[in-house]
Structure formats: structure tokens, C-alpha cells
Amino acid sequence: MNNETLISVTRLSRYYGKLAAVDDLSFELRRGEVLGFLGPNGAGKTTTMQMLCGTLAPSAGSIRIVGVDLLEQPREAKHQLGYLPEQPPLYRELTVDEYLHYCSRLRGLSRPSSAAAVARAKGRCGLDSSGSRLIANLSKGYQQRVGIAQAILHRPAVVVLDEPTVGLDPIQIREIRSLIRELGEDHGVILSTHILPEVQAVCDRVQIIHQGRLVLNENREQLAHRTGQRVLRLGLRRPPSQDLLAAIAGVQRVEALADERWRLTFSDDTGSAEELAARATTADWGMFELVSEQRSLEEIFVELTCGESFVEDQASSEAS
User: pTM for this structure?
Assistant: First the structure.
């Protein structure tokens, strides 16, 4: 991954009256990186995306795109952006070629440059044989390809994609995800989505926003460690006190579940099922279950945005 910083967001805030839709947000995006941007409805995700794309002014903070301040030099900064909204801005009565040539002129490309740019974007998005087709007659997947093509016509440093696979079939989803990974090799990509498997499939880094604040900002390796955190579910007929379970070496958290079951989360990979089984047998805790679990990105997302009590309630209902 290139270390060139493409977007630098510093203490970004947006207020509606006294309501802080975005509160003191700071992060960076580098070239060659696909950043997954997640958040529940009302978390401030859309507001953040609008500020990044220059369609909404922040109440405080700064946004620099390839070193250019978005507020002080908006035209120069926006030239480095390509954007695909959730509803692609397509003119269905035009052919693919007509639409892309129109978009290239809107981007300020000359006619000779426009022809080369359209050919390049079509090739990148798998549209070489679709130039003469009406956009209205294309499948939803190919319409998404056209939307991505218009976003990369001018070779922007940053490509922002908002829910690019919504409404697609499984084959189309795989194709668009593959395209996003390819874009991530040359550009910096921000992917806003509610589809958590999509984030795990294509993103190098994940950010979760909740109530306007950044509550998670981790790269693939850090996230893999978090999801691979050692968790053991234990069933005991004669359990010791929760304090005694929490005192076991390496135990970070103890959760009481239903039906005499407990979930032990270890701080690292020191949690050994064999050691725990031996201790339970020696102390005569009446162990009847010992299962290794792995946390999913969905569980992490729910924990960060709904609180641990919600997770524990869900776990208790599943165990009962």
C-alpha cells in the first residue's frame, strides 16, 4: 500500500441546532486503500459522506483532499473526487457512450481527452461491448458499472461508493466487489455499506461511526485479531463465583448466559480449552459443555453501536 495520504479529516463536526450529527471526527485515507465506512441509521454516516464530497459544509473542522483544503479551494479539491451515490445519476434515455461522453465534458475534459477517458473507463468497468446500448435496457449490475465508470472518468485520487451492490444478484455482487478491489489498487476508495460480509471481502480498513463519533478504526490485521479473539463457552452444573472465573489467567471478560452457561473472553490466544477443562474437572465444577467461539464483524458492530447489554441479551436468548 502507498503511504500517500489522499484524504485528511481533522476534528470534523456538523451541528443541526444543538444536535451533533457528526462530532469531532478525524481519520485519513491513503492511496491503495479500500476503507469500509459503517454505521447504523442516524449515526452520521451520510452527513459525513456529504461533507467529504463537498455538498454539505461542516460546522467545524477541516477536510484536505490530496493536500488541498476542500473549503478554501473546492473546485481543485473536488476534481480529485469520484462519487457514486446509492442511486446512480444515470440518464436512462442515453446510450452508455453518450452518457459517459456527457459526464466527461462535465468534468472539463477536452474532446480528444474525453474519447480516451471514456474508452479507459469502459475497459476498466467491463463495458467495452455495451457502448451503444441504452442505459434503460441494461441490467441493474451493468447500470452500477456505468455509475462507477462515470466516477472514475477523470482519474480521481479518491473514489466514494455509497451502497454500490444494493439490489444486485449474487453474481453481480461478486463482479462489483472484484471491481472495487481493482479500483483500490490505484485509487483510495471509501465504501459506505450496510452489508458486513462485503466489508470483510474487499476492505483494507474498517471504520464504524455511532452517534456522530468514530468508535472503531482498524485495519484488516487488527480486525482479524479482534474477530479471532479467543472465546470459550462453558457449561457448569456447580459453577464457582463469577469473580473466580474472572481471575483465571488471561480472562478479559466473563458473561453469564442462560442454563448454567458462561462465556469467557480471553485477552489473547492464551485461552486453552484443555487447561480450562482440567481446572473444571479438578475443582468438580460439573462441566457439561466447552465450546470455542469466534466473534463476527456483526457482533462487534452490534456491541459498539447497541452496547454490551444488547449483545448479552442476544447471547442469552440464543443459548436458551
Answer: 0.76
